[in-house]
Amino acid sequence: MNESSSQHFGASTQAIRAHYDLSNDFYRTWLDETMTYTAALWDHNNPSDNLLLAQQRKIDFAAQQIFTEDTTSILDIGCGWGGALAHMQQYFNLKNPVGITISQAQYEWIKSKHSNVKVHLERWENYHTDEKYDGIISVEAIEAFVKPGMTSQAKIDIYRHLFKKCRYWLKDNGRFFLQCICYENSFPKDLDEFIKNEIFPESDLPRLAELAAGWEYLFEPVNIANHRLHYVQTLRAWLKNMRDNKENLVKEFGDSIYMRYLHYLKLSEYMFSNGNCSLLRITLQRINHSREEEK
């Protein structure tokens, strides 16, 4: 795809690939077997819970939010390495799993590891289909859909464009599960410069109010939960995996990359521990007869 001729809102394809295309082997070393690079869902009453189970539980939770007995097709916007769709296909009898990513490395991983998942190497802004899905998921991708320095209204306009497209892609009564990091007790100026410049350049977080303004008249909220402490535990598990594999990571990828990611994960743990950021899990249902259409 020629990005210069495409519609483009948030982080550039180059900025996204600089992070996610670093190396599939790098991420495989410290993520779980599903290659899930987002907050897990932990059983805090079970001391033997582990990262793999918690990530599978998160995927199950997302599926339970949107699946009915008739569900056969799901679209995953920002599908990562395809683990969620592959899991849903195996355990929820999903017939038509479709993912969108702009990471070349993730695209190639899915093509080689999850051949039954249909994946598009494309920006969400430019994805077009007349196919109607039973459900849509998007897990920690929306953070890259806007840029730092945008006004709140400019961000709302982009989120609204996203929700309009998702409503069009969904069948009547279809549901959209959204997991995202949001500003909570903080402002954009409080976002650590290291993360903003070295880890996720050209990206910015939403606020819940901005998301709600984006989906108004298009979706009704079914469930909203803040699970920020689940991110704290996820980050601690990733940090442990990185430290346990320090020798191999430094040998294969260098000390600077190892220290950069270690610092990033430690800063993120601090932000979620202190409530500077929230981790929202939001379930929305399509409004079939939208008053938006009367405007």
Give the termini separation. Answer: 35 Å
Largest sheet: 7 strands, mixed
* Basic shape: globular
Count of alpha and pi helical runs: 11
Kindly identify the CATH topology.
Rossmann fold
What is the gyration radius calculated from CA atoms? 18 Å
Structural class: alpha/beta
Q: What is the count of structural domains? A: 1
State the CATH architecture.
Answer: 3-Layer(aba) Sandwich
Poorly predicted tracts of residues: 1-5
Give me the count of strands: 7
Identify the CATH homologous superfamily: Vaccinia Virus protein VP39
* CATH class identity: Alpha Beta
Write the element-wise H/E pattern from the N-terminal end onward. Answer: HHHEHEHEEHEHHEHHHE
Strand content: 15-25%
For the residues shown, what is the average pLDDT? 94
